[in-house]
Specification:
404 residues, alpha/beta, Rossmann fold, 2 domains, 6-stranded mixed sheet, 5-stranded antiparallel sheet, 16 helices, 50% helix, globular, binds adenosine-5'-diphosphate, binds magnesium ion
Length: 404
């Protein structure tokens, strides 16, 4: 693969009073086109400093940064600003949306700088908002959206120009686990569909699992650099592998596949792939019960019961013993019409389906928002209190004169 970003002996040091803080040293990175690369490290390890160097938001103390073969570390501020507008997208932890503007106007904004006409800008913004599952929120302002929805707008804005690379600093730092998964699925979807390179920075191991490559920083130096099988690809593969097994009712094979997945990866992956295949089932509950019935091992039975509950196929109160009883004594189960059952199942999984770019996404967001309005708002306020990435960058670039 072609190299998209390259650094040579990159170093960044700050002077704080009489002390010198070496935030980055000896960074030699080569990120190929289309790769999703995660820079992983604890707080203070130099992640944001590295991202700012790669994106040309800060000048290195020593060393070089190239994007598409262009030496951005030697560009003037004006050249850099233009280069970023033409080639780069950003996603921030605190979303950084313009508060007075609607979702459409926020997303259309980067196209302004590229001289795209108003009607074309709006059309492109609408298409992007649909892709991130916000077709019903297009005219909403950031204050009228949940954290997860605002970050979807942030992602739509970053990708609307189809940039070569999107940089993201802790993009899911203010989001819950499920929303994090949805946001990461979006990143990966755009990366795969458009061949867009993504560099994301995080302290979160779970987020790193979505990347193609994990570069770990400690005290400003790379201590490990590993290729990773993205959870996004793993999940998609599993969805396909499960399909024929579900259709042919090969439950033994299906259960071994699920067990292997949960031990190789996480239960979450198995749940996600199963949920996907539920849509082609007439009766998911019966399916889960049959699956559980063929398992001898109690621990595994418990695992499948948990997965059944996670996917919404099994009612929360049912324990594994009762499930087995139900299986052998089917008349105890209150029979509903097939249609009713199917509808009930969809109601249950409505807030859960992970296929982010489908029609259910917005309904799901609605539901989630209704449920979590108060905590989400608190979260957002809390994030506003945190260091604002943009402000951070401005502050940092102001210290450039203080380098060693
Ligand atoms: P991370 O993003 O991994 O939490 P940072 O890149 O923000 O870490 O910071 C790495 C190190 O550089 C830290 O020790 C931090 O205090 C220092 N640092 C970052 N920015 C500045 C600055 N503008 N002035 C002085 N020190 C800084
Ligand atoms: Mg940081």
């Amino acid at each position: 693969m072609d190299s998209l970003i390259k650094t040579v002996n990159l170093r960044k040091a700050y002077r704080v009073g009489n002390e010198k803080v070496v935030a980055l040293d000896c960074i030699n990175l080569d990120i190929p086109k289309g790769q999703v690369c995660c820079i992983l490290g604890t707080s203070g390890s130099g992640k944001s400093t590295l991202l700012n160097q790669l994106a040309g938001l800060e000048k290195p103390t020593r060393g070089e940064v190239y994007i598409k073969g262009e030496k951005i570390s030697s560009m003037s501020e004006k050249q850099l600003a233009h280069f970023r507008q033409m080639n780069v997208g950003f996603v921030f932890q605190s979303y950084n949306l313009l508060q007075g503007m609607s979702a459409i106007d926020n997303v259309a904004m980067p196209l302004n700088f590229r001289g795209v006409s108003k009607s074309k800008r709006e059309k492109a913004a609408k298409t992007m908002l649909k892709k991130v599952g916000l077709e019903k929120r297009m005219t909403h302002k950031p204050s009228e959206m949940s954290g997860g929805q605002q970050q979807r707008v942030g992602i739509a804005r970053a990708f609307v120009t189809k940039p070569d690379v999107v940089f993201a600093d802790e993009p899911t730092g203010n989001l819950d686990t499920r929303t994090t998964r949805e946001v990461m699925d979006l990143f990966l979807e755009f990366a795969r569909q458009e061949g867009i390179t993504i560099v994301l920075v995080s302290h979160d191991q779970n987020l790193a699992k979505y990347a193609d490559r994990i570069v770990t920083l400690v005290d400003g130096e790379i201590i490990s650099d590993k290729i990773n099988n993205s959870l996004y690809d793993v999940t998609n593969e599993l969805k396909e592998q499960m399909k024929p097994l579900v259709e042919n009712k090969s439950y033994k094979e299906l259960s071994s596949l699920i067990l292997k997945t949960t031990s190789d990866y996480t239960e979450g992956v198995a749940v996600q792939a199963l949920e996907y295949n539920f849509t082609s089932l007439e009766n998911p509950r019966e399916f889960m019960e049959e699956l559980i019935a063929i398992i001898d091992n109690e621990t595994e039975k418990a695992l499948f019961t948990r997965i059944g509950r996670e996917t919404g196929a099994i009612p929360k109160e049912t324990d594994s013993k009762r499930l087995a009883e139900n299986k052998s004594n089917k008349e105890k189960i209150v029979k509903k019409t097939k249609k009713e059952k199917k509808q009930g199942f969809f109601d249950k999984i409505k807030g859960k389906k992970i296929d982010t770019v489908d029609k259910k996404a917005d309904k799901k967001a609605d539901k989630k928002e209704d449920k979590a309005q108060t905590p989400k708002n608190n979260n957002d306020t809390a994030s506003d209190d945190k260091k604002d990435d943009k402000k951070d960058n401005i502050e940092k670039s102001n210290t450039e004169g203080n380098e060693e």
